[in-house]
Each structure stands twice: as C-alpha cells, then as structure tokens.
Design a protein that fits this description.
Distance between the termini: 23 Å
InterPro entries: Cdc73/Parafibromin, CDC73_C, CDC73_C_sf
Number of strands: 12
Structural class: alpha/beta
GO cellular component, one term: Cdc73/Paf1 complex
Protein name: Cdc73-like RNA polymerase II accessory factor
Pfam families: CDC73_C
Strand content: 15-25%
Order of helices and strands: HEEEEEHHHHEEHEEHEHHEHEH
Helix content: 25-40%
Oligomer: single chain
Number of domains: 2
Strand order of the largest sheet: 8-9-7-10-11-12
CATH topology of the largest domain: Rossmann fold
Subcellular location: Nucleus
C-alpha cells in the first residue's frame, strides 16, 4: 500500500499498459486483485487501481474513454473516493529500516512482497444481485410479471399489484432480487445492480436520489421498453439506454437474448 501511496502522490513513476504494469521501471503483477475494506462487493486488479491513480484528476467521462481505449476496466465512480481515502490513511505495520545508499531512495529498488497482503486471488463470485423495474403496474415489466418476462419475453398486463416490495428469482443461475424502489440504496447496493428497466416516466428516476445518473447508465445495462408508437423522453435519449420495442404484448427472442447477454456481462465484471 505504501507503493500505491507513492503513485498517488507522483503518478509519473508508474507505467500502465494492458497486461503490463511497471513502477519506476520494475514490473509488478498487474492481474492480482487489490482488496479495499470499503469496496467489499467490488474487487479491482492492481492494473485498474494504478491506472485510476494516474488519471484521477481527469473528468469521469474522459477517464472512462481512456479505460476503453486501453482495454482496462474502470473504477466505479462510487468507489473512487473510498479507494483514495484508504490509500491515504493506510499505515505501514512493517519496521522501517534506513540503509545508507542512494539506490535505496528509489522505489524501483524496494521489495514488492507487501503486495501479497493487499492482493488476493479471485475466488468464486458469490452473493446476490439486484434488478430494478418500474413501480407502475401499467409498465411493460414490473414486480408482478418479471418472472414471465425474463422467461419468455411476455409483458403480461392486468396482473394486479404486487404486495411484496421485492421478488427473488433465479436468472441464468444467478440469485437476483428484483426491486422497484431504490430510494434507500447505498453505493454498495448499486454495485450489485446488474440490470435496470425504464418505462419512460421521468418520475421513476427522480426518486432514485442518484447524483450521477450517467455513471449508473454507463456501468449498468439499462433498457427502455416501448409500446407501439410511444416515444422515449429527452431524459432517456440523453443517457446510455437501449430501447426495446414491445409488440403484441411481448419482446422478440433476439431482444431477450440481448438482455441476458448484457446481464451476464455485467455480473462477470462485478
């Protein structure tokens, strides 16, 4: 962590290329996972953390573009402050030894064995994930019909009002909790969200209490279900939202396949 602190203070000592990371000219293991206390449900590789530290002064949109260009996974917006604070507040527990010699003043000569204490191999991805649906019973998808919708793409109507505030389902082998109210969601809860469905009503997202909607829609697969000639609002067109047409009370098999593919990809990136 002391090395991460040095990179935080002086990003120029670090060079990051896809699959190859060096600090002061000395290569380090970029694929290992760095574990931070405050990001319990999200793990990052050393490569991701170092690349973020090198570009943390950039605007978030610019930083995301750089990540895409380099093929490096991004650090979630909600995790960035947590990571910086943990690096800054980390206190070394090892004994400091001063050696009389200029070569020991450069981090390229230091032992990187400490990384084993802050890195861990990726294990099984456990726990559950969230899926967010509209509250409106007239929406093409809601808590009442989500099971059937994900099974065969049918958007059942007049199925009543759900008495539950969540529905637990199994989707592609994953444990998923479907909710229609996220006002109380924490940043940790949002990191578990793998899919969002919109009905086009602005009030749906106005109640989310989320400051950076663009970051949510850029990192979570989001779908707007449209019936007939219904047009999405300007707020939908402003974000990274995929429009799916509902015809004859259902979506196409290919659209359902896209939803499954996007959700699977999101889970694998968690």
């Amino acid at each position: 962590m002391d090395i991460l602190n040095k990179v935080l203070r002086d990003p120029s000592v670090c060079q990051v290329q896809p699959g190859e990371v060096s600090i002061a000219g000395k290569p380090v293991i970029s694929g290992q996972t760095v574990k931070f206390i405050g990001t319990e449900t999200k793990e990052y590789t050393l490569e991701q953390v170092l690349f973020y530290l090198m570009n943390r002064t950039e605007k978030y949109t610019t930083y995301m573009s750089l990540c895409r260009e380099r093929g490096i996974g991004k650090i979630y917006y909600t995790d960035q402050k947590i990571i910086i604070e943990e690096i800054e507040n980390f206190k070394e527990t090892t004994v400091s030894v001063e050696v009389d010699g200029p070569e020991f003043r450069y981090i390229g000569q230091q032992d990187y064995g400490y990384l084993e204490s802050v890195c861990k191999k990726e294990g099984m991805r456990g726990g559950f994930y969230y899926m967010v649906v509209p509250q409106s019973v007239s929406s093409p998808v809601n808590l009442c019909n989500i099971r059937v919708f994900l099974d065969n793409g049918q958007c059942l109507v007049n199925v009543g009002i759900s008495e539950a505030n969540r529905v637990e389902i199994k989707f592609m082998g994953y444990d998923v909790v479907v909710v229609d109210d996220v006002k109380g969601f924490t940043s940790e809860d949002w990191r578990r969200v793998v899919c969002v469905f919109l009905d086009g009503s602005k009030w749906q997202i106005n109640e989310w209490s989320v400051k950076d909607l663009a970051e949510i829609f850029d990192t979570i697969p989001t779908f707007y279900l449209s019936r007939g000639n219904q047009h999405e609002g300007q707020f939908v067109r402003s974000y990274n939202v995929r429009k799916i047409q509902v015809r004859d009370g259902a979506i196409s098999k290919s659209d359902l396949d896209v939803i499954q593919e996007k959700v699977r990809g999101c889970v694998l990136n968690k």
